[in-house]
Write a structure and sequence with these properties.
Blueprint: H1 10-15, E1 20-28, H2 35-50, E2 61-67, H3 73-82, E3 88-93, H4 97-100, H5 107-117, E4 123-125, H6 132-146, E5 149-154, H7 165-174, E6 179-183, E7 190-193, H8 200-211, H9 216-237, H10 241-293, H11 301-321, H12 323-345, H13 367-379, H14 391-444, H15 449-454
Parallel strand pairs: 1-2, 1-5, 2-3, 3-4, 5-6
Antiparallel strand pairs: 6-7
């Protein structure tokens, strides 16, 4: 009998912030004369890059480095970034790995490449090009388009061929990508070109999400219930619990937190909506009462004005606090975490590519969610690759835990909404009928004597 799994403290999952990340792109020469001093210059540049981001209250600020791991500058910058705690590596290759390593000069260089690439589970290979020069140019442009800041180790001279450092630096300038140029011939010369700068809003929106808190007791109860359910489904599917449950636990905690935050803001939005409708109805009733029964006391209408001002105040606060937008954002992020749980079991990469910065016409409110999801996805425990023997088990798990569960959920939700629709329809018919009856009585002068006096 296996011992029960030890679960990380719930306080960590409830309050642990999702890190904000600055994506560092790399470019530069393959041959460097003074790598030690250039490494020091890169570290100095990284500290100044941190200062480009806004001050965050509850969110750690970390680095990611986007690199093709070519010899020289690419690896030097990559290694220096990874020296900073919490940094992640994302590898982008210009061609298939087997073909790419042929360009490395020595066995030591190939060994260093393998060591670095083993430190990431995010490897992308660009589509084939007609020539290596075109492939290198494409990967350099890709890095500029996807990074927040480009660090270039460049001697300032024109490129020797297509896709060289000078061309990539020029492309960064043309697209207003923030650029740190460290002179490869003199590391004391560091130039900062802010370009479009770092947009503070994705950082601040993520910080706002991290600042929100959920009750640890309710979180623990729900997590224990869900993890027991998933554990049973994993066993029935014949999957190895020690390999898949750590990933399920990691993503499930993020999903539950996002789901509870979405529900909290949803309930707040619905309560505000109910209050607004109730106040508006009360204002109309007061106005009608005054006109019908107390026409000589128009001062009563002051209370109607007060109620309508209260309605406007609630609407203003809701827009100011972005209740509806935050509800949709939190729900979107929570569902991304939930689906990621199943995609991780299926060994499917669901990382999201951001559009090239220079092609973005304006800030998208989804940017912070893309960044948050990408960070969590990259930090999840790895599930060891299998030889295909677990295919049937994975299929069974996905069918039972995901597809069947969603069918059951949507059937129940549909019934609840149908019942609510029928109740609201019945109430609408009753109110509509009463309105017609009152109007007819008013026209026919039918009713108690005091109504006849008023009319």
């Amino acid at each position: 009998m296996t011992a029960p799994r030890k679960i990380a403290p719930f306080r960590d999952a409830v309050d642990q912030a999702i890190a904000a990340r600055i994506v560092i792109g790399v470019t530069g020469h393959r041959k460097l004369e003074n790598p030690i001093s250039l490494g020091d210059a890169v570290q100095s540049a990284l500290q100044k890059i941190r200062q480009m981001a806004p001050e965050l209250q509850s969110t750690p600020l970390l680095f990611s480095v986007l690199s093709p791991l070519a010899e020289g500058a690419d690896r030097l910058i990559t290694i220096e970034v990874l020296k900073n705690a919490g940094s992640l590596l994302e590898v982008i290759l210009p061609m298939e790995k087997e073909e790419y390593v042929k360009d490395f000069q020595t066995d030591d260089s190939k060994k260093e490449f393998e060591e670095l690439i083993s430190r990431t589970n995010i490897i992308r290979i660009l589509s084939p090009k007609s020539s290596k020069e075109e492939a290198y140019e494409r990967v350099g442009r890709y890095i500029v388009e996807q990074c927040d800041v480009l660090i270039a180790l460049w001697d300032g001279k024109p490129s020797a061929g297509r896709g060289g450092t000078e061309e990539i630096v020029r492309y960064a300038r043309d697209t207003k990508c923030p650029l740190v140029w460290i002179n490869a011939a003199d590391s004391s010369q560091i130039s900062f070109e802010t370009g479009r700068g770092l947009d503070p809003r994705p950082f601040l929106d993520l910080d706002d999400y991290n600042l929100k808190r959920v009750a640890s007791k309710g979180f623990e109860t729900r997590f224990n219930r869900d993890i027991r359910l998933f554990s049973d489904q994993v066993k029935r599917a014949g999957l190895p619990p020690d390999k898949v449950l750590p990933t399920i636990e990691f993503l499930l905690k993020r999903y539950i937190r996002g789901d509870k935050l979405a529900l909290d803001i949803q309930h707040l939005y619905y309560r505000a909506e109910t209050v607004v409708h109730s106040l508006a109805l009360a204002a109309v009733m007061i106005a009608a009462f005054q006109v019908l029964f107390l026409p000589d006391l128009p001062v009563i209408l002051v209370s109607e004005i007060a109620l309508m001002l209260a309605v406007l105040g609630i609407v203003w606060i809701g827009r100011r606090q972005r209740w509806h937008d935050r509800w949709i954002d939190y729900r979107f992020l929570a569902e991304r975490f939930r689906s990621a749980l199943f995609m991780a079991i299926a060994n499917v990469d669901v990382a999201i590519l951001r559009p090239p910065r220079h092609l973005s016409l304006s800030y998208s409110p989804k940017d912070w969610m893309v960044a948050a999801f990408s960070t969590v996805w990259r930090m999840k425990p790895r599930i060891p690759a299998d030889d295909g023997s677990l295919f049937e088990g994975v299929k069974q798990f996905l069918c039972e835990a995901w597809i069947n569960d969603q069918i059951f959920y949507h059937e129940g939700t549909s019934k609840r909404h149908l019942g609510r629709h029928r109740r609201m329809t019945a109430v609408s018919y009753v109110l509509f009928g009463l309105t017609i009856a009152v109007a007819v009585a008013h026209i026919a002068k039918v009713g108690p004597p005091f109504l006849e006096t008023v009319f």
